Amino acid sequence: MSASAEQPDELIPLKQAVDLAGADVLDLGCGAGWLSRRIADAGAASVTGIDTDADRIARNIAKDGQTVRFLTGAAEALPLKDASLDVIVMMKSLHHVPIPQMDAAFDEFARVLRPNGQIYICEPAYEGDFNEVLRIFHDEGPQRAAALQAIADATAFGIIRETDYIRPVNFASLNDFRTKMMHLPWLKHRITPAIESQVATAWKIHADPDGSAAFKSRMIVFVLRRKRQAP
């Protein structure tokens, strides 16, 4: 089996897997909208970015509400018309859908996609040094397993492509890691002094002499195609 290719630019695997040019695309779980904007620049006919965080969506609209249409919404209740999309992109976001709602989310994907529409799903593999550090304060094992099971159970879709790549994840220091990965609004309640100490101990194992650390995270990619409904 060949080694997975390292890919720091996550738009490249996306463009290799699905045709964005001229497509109506949804970036689901768009966050700050960086990928939405790059999909628009890649030649998509239209791009909609949806996230559950209303404040973030408001910031996205204020920054760039012309190139991309940003909406607040959830995967299990998309504020979109039937058969209005060619491609749905979920960049590390499927495991953030509440587990009881994952099947309903795929029902919604089938509703809003046109016949032969595709879903690009990229999920981080639950393995490796980076994951071991994250697990100390944010263990997503059950969520990631449920996401993979939901893909397998999505009877309205067929998997047409499955691949992976390595994403480099670099931090200048432990404080850089804390700022970007730990001291986030939805994690504050978990970061106790004991957790801080455990992370610092784990950091020393992986850090270079200057205090920086370079991790490699394997990303698993699935491309699903909507099956045509029987007449």
Summarize the structure.
This protein is an alpha/beta fold and 231 residues long.
Please explain how this structure is put together:
- This protein has eight helices and seven strands; from the N terminus they run αβαβαββαβααβααβ.
- The protein has 231 residues and is an alpha/beta fold.
- The protein has a single domain (11-169, 216-226), classed as 3-Layer(aba) Sandwich (Rossmann fold).
- A seven-stranded mixed beta sheet has the order 3-2-1-4-5-7-6, with helices on both faces.
- The longest helix is centred in the last third of the chain and has 14 residues, at 193-206.
- The termini are far apart.
Q: Strand order of the main beta sheet, please?
A: 3-2-1-4-5-7-6
pLDDT averaged residue by residue:
95
Class by helix and strand content?
A: alpha/beta
Helical amount? 25-40%
Q: Tell me the number of strands.
A: 7
Number of discrete helical segments: 8
Range of strand content: 25-35%
Largest sheet: 7 strands, mixed
What's the SSE pattern? HEHEHEEHEHHEHHE
Give the end-to-end Cα distance, rounded to a whole number of Å: 41 Å
CATH superfamily heading: Vaccinia Virus protein VP39
CATH class: Alpha Beta
Whole-angstrom Rg: 18 Å
Number of separate domains: 1
The CATH architecture? 3-Layer(aba) Sandwich
Note poorly predicted spans.
none
At CATH level 3, the topology is Rossmann fold
Q: Which secondary structure elements does this structure contain, and how are they paired or packed?
A:
Layout: H1 11-17, E1 24-28, H2 34-41, E2 46-51, H3 54-64, E3 69-72, E4 85-91, H4 102-112, E5 113-124, H5 128-135, H6 141-153, E6 157-171, H7 174-182, H8 193-206, E7 213-226
